[in-house]
């Protein structure tokens, strides 16, 4: 008799939930949510420019701002559970990896500041559902000389 295995039997329960999480996270990737949130703001930006240290997720050349969207686990966010709690298995490996990422992040911030570029770090845990933190959006608007309230003087017909 043929052993009929459905595709879902091929993975253990934990493997399957890991895969499901990965699938879900590509759909709600914080970088994509951020891109969607800033799209209506009409700001010019490039994504991951290779010529800028650290290849920021978003780089706003005209206002001199680099935005990094950081996953709390990988970048060791010290203000949330996901960033603080490390896996118990292979603890040394994970700690070394995350500390290395943190060192690199700090180095990148220093390099960018030296070039006169402001660095905004947006932590994944600060997203509210699909919305990135308002604060960073407001800072971008302020920096571009536009007010962060609803009224948009640039769109008026005054001349
Ligand atoms: Zn966090």
Could you please describe the fold and organization of this structure?
The protein is mainly alpha-helical and 159 residues long. The chain has one domain (29-145): Endonuclease, Chain A. Helices cover 39% and strands 9% of the residues. It has 5 helices and 3 strands; from the N terminus they run ααββααβα. It has a 3-stranded mixed sheet with strand order 1-2-3, with helices on both faces. A hairpin with a 4-residue loop joins strand 1 and strand 2. It is globular. It starts with 12 loop residues before the first helix and ends in a 16-residue tail after the last helix. Residues 151-159 have low confidence and may be disordered.
Q: Key terms for this structure?
A:
mainly alpha; 159 residues; 5 helices; disordered C terminus; Endonuclease, Chain A; 3 strands; binds zinc ion
């Amino acid at each position: 008799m043929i052993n009929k295995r459905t595709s879902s039997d091929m993975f253990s329960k934990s493997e399957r939930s890991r895969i499901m999480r990965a699938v879900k996270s590509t759909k709600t990737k914080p970088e994509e949510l951020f891109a969607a949130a800033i799209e209506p703001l009409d700001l010019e930006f490039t994504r991951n420019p290779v010529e800028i240290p650290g290849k920021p997720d978003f780089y706003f050349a005209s206002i001199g701002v680099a935005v990094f969207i950081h996953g709390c686990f990988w970048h060791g966010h010290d203000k949330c559970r996901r960033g603080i709690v490390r896996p118990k298995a292979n603890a040394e490996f994970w700690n070394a990896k995350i500390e290395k990422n943190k060192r690199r992040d700090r180095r990148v911030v220093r390099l960018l500041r030296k070039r006169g570029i402001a660095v905004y770090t947006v932590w994944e845990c600060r997203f509210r559902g699909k919305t990135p933190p308002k604060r960073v959006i407001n800072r971008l608007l302020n920096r571009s000389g536009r007010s962060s309230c609803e009224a948009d003087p640039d769109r008026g017909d005054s001349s």
